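Sequence, please.
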């Protein structure tokens, strides 16, 4: 009789251990399922689909801190392209400069006003001159805020008889602002100044022109 009682007690002990193992396994499986669901949710949240020309393209979202150097360099390059790319058309100049001034503070507006008052834009229009810029490099220091930058570029001033190549070096600082349609990178250029803007070469265009008889 005692042996049967011990057998029953042993069987209940086995059942309790088995039940405890099942409960622990179920709890571990639930935790694993919740963790994997969270991972999948995070992965899907960082995935963006863009419709372009009837095609679905996949993009990935990331922390802005990972993209600061890239966005800062593009912001600086865009500002310089808008500010220094000019054609002999008053409306085109105005539209381009307005885009540039959305990306910078009063230091850029001051330079624009100085150029306008000196008759620079008038001479561009009256002389049928085009000005183009090629950005050579943009260095940005993201270790200290606001972010210091230095931009090195080449300008080409195209006249009827010559093409003047100039070297351009500018510097300034970038601070964070709200993103907008006019300022998609969310930076504002401050304390912008020109360090160098000098002629490098002058090429005569007439030498390459063939007259018609």
């Amino acid at each position: 009789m005692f042996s049967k009682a011990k057998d029953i007690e042993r069987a209940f002990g086995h059942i309790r251990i088995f039940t405890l193992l099942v409960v622990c396994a179920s709890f571990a499986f639930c935790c694993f399922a919740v963790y994997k669901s969270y991972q999948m949710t995070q992965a899907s949240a960082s995935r963006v689909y863009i419709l372009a020309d009837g095609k679905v393209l996949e993009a990935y979202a990331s922390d802005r801190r990972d993209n600061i150097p890239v966005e800062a360099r593009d912001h600086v390059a865009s500002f310089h392209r808008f500010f220094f790319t000019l054609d002999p058309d008053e409306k085109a100049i105005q539209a381009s400069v307005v885009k540039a001034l959305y990306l910078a503070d009063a230091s850029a507006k001051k330079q624009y006003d100085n150029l306008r008052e000196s008759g620079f834009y008038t001479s561009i229009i009256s002389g049928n001159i085009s000005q183009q810029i090629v950005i050579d490099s943009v260095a940005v220091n993201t270790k200290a805020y606001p972010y210091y930058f230095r931009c090195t570029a080449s300008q080409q001033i195209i006249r009827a008889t010559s093409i003047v190549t100039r070297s351009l070096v500018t510097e300034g600082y970038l601070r964070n602002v709200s993103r907008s349609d006019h300022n998609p990178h969310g930076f504002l250029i401050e304390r912008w100044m020109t360090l160098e803007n000098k002629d490098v070469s002058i090429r005569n265009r007439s030498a390459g022109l063939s007259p018609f008889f």
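The chain has two domains: 2-47, 65-208.
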